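Our consortium's second objective concerns turning raw sequence data into structural hypotheses that experimental partners can test. To show how far this objective has progressed, the report includes one record in full. It was chosen at random from the queue rather than selected for favorable results. The single chain below, 331 residues long, was entered without modification.
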Amino acid sequence: MTQTNLCAQFGLNGTIVWANRLFLDAMGYELAEIAGRHHSLFCNEDYAASEDYRAFWRNLADGKPDQGTYRRTARDGSIVRLRANYNPVRSTDGTVTGVLKIATDITAETLRQSHFQALSDAVRHSHAVVEFGLDGEILEANAIFLDLFGYRHDQLIGRHHRMLCTAGHSQSEDYRRFWDRLRGGNHASGRFCRVDRSGREIWIQATYNPVMDLEGKPFRVVKLATDITREVELENAAHSQLADSESLREKLGDRSAELERMLGEVQRIVTTISGIATQTQMLALNATIEAARAGDHGAGFSVVAREVKELANAARRSTDQAEQMLKTRAA
């Protein structure tokens, strides 16, 4: 017993008689430093001066054992947590002659539990948390989860998870496989579309975490979730606007192609007109020459030639202007 437990012996008035090496190491003393001193050496001043502490030693002196978890102080001022039994020691005639303390140092265990509890509290204060049985029954839910889905505690506990899903999804093969995986100890995470009490879609970023028993077998599922409904709505709006922009771009592309085709057709017509204008100018020039040769007899012919030439020049100016506009558009 003294090889695996912290042990110390006290007189009925609380003075230290003896302690083993494990006890001395845990408290940071040597036996010569504490022998004959009072047990209150290991307690904080407020507790050592309290009525509870005096009653503790009176009960031990009356032969009443005491057990539990105790907060004690080591030599360097650090806190030591002990799970201990204070056992009255009796003589052969039954008289209480002393007290034997047998303890286990649970300081490290207590710190781990405190750390775990702090993490658990932090998660529960910042996330929607709900616990399920392996069959999907809702066992517990925190206030954030209840507020998010619009339920009271009594309206949710004992119901099945499917009440939070759309009708189509809760009846699907995917949903059945989802719970099969959780029952097999596999966690699930991602974005999930759920339904609140009023039927409104709620989008959550969530993890479903199987909790294992001491034999490593899952016995419940803890879900941690955050509300991303607004984020999903904004994403959907952005995708819709992007689709509209793409559609507009395609329409503008189609119109641009049609415009280019029309411009090409106009260019072809202008080229044709330009050729005709050139030929007309040549005819007007030939007509002028013939009128000059004919003298007075060609006067009327000369007038016609002059008008044809003016018409050809006007056509040339118009086609030149049209070609310049087409070149500017192409550039």
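The partners drew two points from this record. DSSP finds eleven helices and ten strands in the chain. The chain has three domains: 6-111, 127-227, 258-330. Both points have been shared with the crystallography group to help prioritize constructs.
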